[in-house]
Amino acid sequence: MSIGAPTQNMPLRSLTKLWPQSFPVQVSLVISILSLLGMLVFAWFTGQQQSRLVFDATLNTSEAMAQNIAVDAAKYLLRKDYSNLEILLRQYGNLPGMLRLKAFDAEGHLLSHVVRQGDTSKVVYKIERVELAKEWQSYYQLADGQIIFWQPIVPSTHLLGWINLEISLETSSVIQRRLLTNTLIFGLVAAAVGIMLMLGYFRRPLKAIREASHFAAQLDQKRGEQLPVIRVAREFSTLAESLNVASLRLLEQEQELLSSNERLETILTYAVDGILTLDGELRLLSFNPSAERLFGYGQDYVDHSADYRVDYRVDHKDDPSEHLINPMDQSFEPRDQNHKLLGRKAQELFNMPLEGILAKHNTAYETSKLLGLRWDGSSFPCELSSSKVDLDKETLYIVIVRDISERVRYETTLKEREAEARKLALIASLTDNAVIVTDPQSRIEWVNEGFSRITGYSLDETIGKKPGQFLQGPDTDPNTVNYIRNMLHKRQGFRVEILNYHKSGRPYWIEFELQPIFDEQGELINFMAIESDITERKESETQLRQAKEYAEEANKAKSEFLSRMSHELRTPLNAILGFAQLLQLEDLTAEQQDDLERILKAGRHLLTLINEVLDISRIESGTISLSMEALQIADLIYESVNLMQASAKEYGVDIKLCSEPKANLRVLADMQRLKQIILNLLSNAIKYNRSGGKVTLHCEIKDERFYLHISDTGIGIAQDKFHRLFTPFDRLGAEQSSIEGSGMGLALSKRLVEVMNGHIQVQSYEGKGSTFSIDLAIEQGQGQQQKLVVSSFKDLPPPLEDDSLFKVIYIEDNLSNIALVKKLLERITQVKLLTAMEGQLGLELSRQQAPDLIFLDLHLPGLNGEEVLERLKQDPKTQNIPIIILSADATPKRISQIKEKGVVAYLTKPINIQELLSVIHEQIAQRQAALRAARADEVNP
Amino acid sequence: MLDKNILKSLQSRVTKTSSVLLLVLWLVSLSFLAKAQEEGYIVSVVPQFPQLVLVEQWQPLLDELSQRLGVKFELETPENIPKFEIDFLEGHPDFAFVNPYHVVMAYESQGYIPLISDGSRELNGILVVNANSDIDELSDLEGQTIAFPSPNAFGASLYMRALLAQEGLNFEPIYVETHSNVYRFVFLGQAAAGGGVRNTLSKEDEDLQNQLKIIYETPGTRPHPIVAHPRVPEALREALSEVLIDLYQSPEGRLLLEATQLNQPIRVSYEADYQKLDSLNLEDFVVIQDF
Fold first, then answer.
1. Which residue of A183, A596, A633, A798 is surrounded by the most CB atoms within 10 Å?
2. In the prediction, which pLDDT does A180 show?
3. H helix or E strand, kind and range, residue A13
4. Which of B178, B189, B207 sits opposite A83 (nearest CB)?
5. Do A737 and A717 touch, CB atoms closer than 8 A?
6. CA separation for the pair A27, A34 (Å, rounded)
7. H or E element: which one contains A177?
8. Residue A311 Cα to chain centre, angstroms
9. Cβ neighbours, 10 Å, residue A507
10. Pair A812, A825: CB distance under 8 Å
11. A694 vs A346, which has greater pLDDT?
12. Is B133 helix (H, G, I), strand (E, B) or coil?
């Protein structure tokens, strides 16, 4: 179209642009459009025809219905039966399509009026009058999708009234729409089928045209390919055959053009080695694919892992591969992968100048080893050969580069292994340990000199033998031998200690570690064992064990000795203290009383001493049993101070409590033991004070611990004696003075505080006084409040109220104890004492006499006291008799054990007479109460 | 409010009584079987409503009764009240649903025995006029046309006319066959007033009711009963009464009963409930038409 074309042609031009250029598409489009247009016209015409038929049918139906209603309504109008008229209209009102029904009389008064509402009809009560038509003829009007039909009611010759119907045309229009839709769908389907059929017919010729067109367009690339000939019409066959001839001609010409040049190119392309072509200035002219790959310039070749620690110096006279250095020191700048090398100096690809190498190669067929440099800065070892080609005007170098990474790596590994093997052989021959290498059947292949030194056998004597055959002897543990066999069989490594025999017959201990050695295929090749002589270690272990056993036995003997001593010393002391106390009750002169007091004092001192020695030994043997509890420290301190007031007075010393402990503060300790410690410290503070001196107590809480400081104003302790302060029996020279003491108190206190997780410390200034401090853990929880009961002595029991005797049996083998108790009980007139010196006798006597009370010693010849107790409790005759244990065994564990068996009391020897008397008194009182109760029963049965 | 336990014991007593009753009924029904199989008992209903409406109202109840009693009941709905009256005066129906004065007529002519009526209401005759009219008092109707269903319809016509006559009102009665027609005549202005009863008016469309107003009402009487001809065996009469009373116990039964205006069935007798109508001297107003 020319530039000056009128603008009204523009839409036509754009339409032309939209029109498809392909002939097959044009044909398909034209067929489809024509078929669719035809079908639409047909459907419209048919729809119009059918709508008219439907409307006529609806009208006829309405007319028939109106006539029916008129006939039915006539009889009701005649009778003026309006309610039945209404029912009639309501029934017709339910018919489909009916909108409204009215019945009028001849004057036009509305008689009945029914309206359709949803699915049902409803009567409307409304007064209405209309002008009626003069003619008695039915007629209709069309309005708004309805037919309004008027029907006169004329049963005979005169008019009764009119029926008026409104019928919806909706149903008929629905039918019309459906008809039209159906026609259209049918038309479309028919059009589609027609289009398909036509396209089916035209498919092959259209395909032939399309293919021929494509073929002709690419004829230069077809290289003799043939177009399939589609025989639809003569024109198509001729076209295809002509194109095929043309294709064949073109191929022949192309093949002639292929030259031997290209074959050469192919060889270069597929060569394994890199081939570079350089000009006379050593600038790169060409690069084959292998060279690209080697230097990392290829598309998919980037190997960062390879980096070879080899320095190739071509100017070196020796073989360059011999010179191992660390090439990690060499670093090269990475280059851009896209960096163009063509035209640059080939020098950039290697780690040393090429001129010399190429010159050398020019004279002989030689290769050189050097490092190739990749684009990313990494390097690889390569072998380089070259040849020089002189052309007319220029010189070319052809350089062949071969990657020798694998070869170099193999050589390096081989050298490293050899060096390592040499080192190992050296170590094995020099070590003191024995090294044995056997074959898989554990026959010796090689032993080192260490082996010969330890066993006495030389290498020649042992080769081919199994070590077990000549090294083991009578005392070798067979279990260990079996274990070794088992592990060898399983081919597992192990470590054992075993007794072996020297060639001379001397036994020695070795520690023996064996490892199996496998080759790369996992096959067992050797066992290798290393043995070290541990005879000395074994001997010292044995000595240590024996020493430990001796120590344990000695300790046991010591404990037994202490236990015995406790009993043996306490028994006579019992007699001494007991009888002395009895004597005190007699009428004595003042002098005698004084002597007696000395005996008692000395006896109590001895008893304290024994107890303290026992305590210390128990602490040291770890057998002391403590009853740790949360106890109120305030009560304990007050009680201790009170107990010591008398003593303080005696010494003329004033005790003062400086800071009082908190009332509810509780510490974790054994009450009796803590009391013992405080009393001991107070006692020392009083005893070693000056007359008119002071003892002050000071309580403190620091770092969640309770501190009690007891200070005196005494002579103090010299600094150089501090280390002897807590040594048993060391009184630091006080033994020379008149102050009584055993030298055990501080030693025992220190140990007791420590077993209660506390500490004891001392500060002293000679001449000024000392301060002893103990600290204990504070109990934070709400522990049970411990009540301290201060024991009080009771008087002698009152005489029995009745005449009967209170019978007591004492089972005891020690005569002095019997005499003591006998003498004591003589003071209570109504008590009769029987004694038995053996357990069996005691049992029989108890059964026979049925006493009111039994005293029982635990340490008896023959049947011991515990057995006697058990039998007494088993026998129905004796099981209700109260039993009191009198024993020298004062260990708390023992006491609680025996108490569990149902004894009334457990009194320890030496016997405290007041205690014994109070127990007897209690028993007598109980029997009297029982008797009174029995008597009361007799009086009032 | 009744205690639940009392209710329960009442229920159980009712259940026991009804099971005994059912046994008796079954035995009785055996004896009716002969007649029932032949023709069935004719039940005629006073045509207060158009025939189609009457069938809708009564047929379900009669079907239920047939099933329960094992005898067949056939519904008859005469076209108008005069025809209905002729029927029972001649002793044609076995059972009839009649108005109170019909009871007197039927008793005196054939000895029909009243069995069951509605205990929930009284029968009141009403006089309605068009709600848009100026008529408010009886005196406004002097000389006017008044529609009645039929001369002998009790509350709507017979009793009403007697009372209007007592009031000294002169009017022109027209008889339009049914109560429904009476209300439509008044609505369409074809009569100045109309006689009906409250019960039938309440069954009309609410729109129609709103177009009418009541200006006069008769004193209440016992409403329509079901009467039985003396030839009907006494056992069946008794059984029918029991079943109707029993129907009231179930919701379904109550629906059947309400349709027939027997809302709450009670036993009635001529002497106690209807004989007093004799003293109203209505016989002067009775019209017997012969067809």
1. A633
2. 79
3. helix A10-18
4. B178
5. no
6. 11
7. helix A170-217
8. 53
9. 13
10. no
11. A694
12. coil
User: End-to-end CA distance of chain B, in Å?
Assistant: 56
* pLDDT tens digit sequence for B139-171: 999 999 999 998 878 889 888 998 998 888 999
- And the tokens for A142? 């069309």
Task: Tell me which range, A112-126, A582-596, B12-26, is most confidently predicted by mean pLDDT.
Answer: A112-126
Cα-based distances in Å from B162 to B149, B156, B168, B169, B289: 15, 11, 10, 10, 19
- Cβ of A125 within 8 Å of Cβ of B189? The answer is no
CA distance B184 to chain A (A): 7
Q: Which of B180, B207, B211 sits opposite A83 (nearest CB)?
A: B180
pLDDT > 90 fraction of chain A, expressed in percent and rounded: 9
Cα B240–Cα B246–Cα B249 angle in degrees, nearest 5: 155
Q: Which residues of B touch A77 (CB under 8 A)?
A: none
What tokens does B201 get? Answer: 């008016």
**How far is A817 from A575, CA to CA, in rounded Å?**
6
Which H/E stretch holds residue B59? helix B51-69
pLDDT digit string (tens) for A502-549? 989 889 999 989 989 888 788 888 898 988 888 888 889 889 999 999
- pLDDT category at A3 given cuts 50, 70, 90 is very low
Q: Which residues pair with B216 in a beta bridge?
A: B127
Interface of B with A (CB under 8 A): 49-50, 52-53, 176-178, 180-181, 184-185, 187-190, 205, 207-208, 211
Alpha carbons within 13 angstroms on the beta-carbon side of residue A808 total: 28
8 Å CB contact between A433 and A450 = yes
Distance CA A126, CA A546 (A): 135
How far does the CA of residue B50 sit from the closest CA of chain A (Å)? Answer: 6
Using CB atoms, which residue from A82, A109, A124 is nearest to B184? A82
Q: How far apart are CA A372 and CA A880, in angstroms?
A: 112
Q: State the residue for tokens 């002067």.
A: B284
CA distance A334 to A302: 12
Residues in chain A whose Cβ is within 8 Å of chain B: 79-84, 86-87, 109, 111, 123-125, 127
Cα separation, B213 vs A107, in Å, equals 27
In chain A the first and final C-alpha atoms are separated, in Å, by 153
* Residues in CB range of B279: below 8 A, 6 or more apart: none
CB B148 within 8 A of CB B127: no
Which residues in B lie closer than 8 A to residue A127 (C-beta atoms)? Answer: 188-189
Look up the ipTM and state it: 0.72
Residue A55 forms beta bridges with which residues? none
Q: Has this prediction a pTM greater than 0.95? A: no
What pLDDT score was predicted for residue A483?
92
More confident residue, A341 or B59: B59
pLDDT tens-digit readout, A690-741: 888 899 999 888 888 899 999 999 888 888 888 888 887 777 777 667 777 7
Secondary structure E strands in A280-425: 284-287, 368-373, 379-390, 395-403
Contacts of A848 (CB under 8 A, 6+ apart): none
CB contact burial A71-81 (16+ within 10 A = b; e otherwise): ebbbebbeebb
Q: What angle do CA B242, B248, B254 make, to 5 degrees?
A: 135
Structure tokens at A10: 């523009």
User: What confidence score (pLDDT) does residue B34 get?
Assistant: 45
Show the 3-state SS of A35-86.
HHHHHHHHHHHHHHHHHHHHHHHHHHHHHHHHHHHHHHHHHHHHHCCHHHHH
Helix (H, G, I), strand (E, B) or coil at A264: helix
CA–CA separation, B256 and A573 (whole Å): 121
* Residue (of A480, A545, A534) closest to A508 by Cα position: A534
pLDDT computed for residue A587 by the predictor: 82
Question: Residue A795 pLDDT more than 60?
Answer: no
- Say which amino acid occupies A338: N
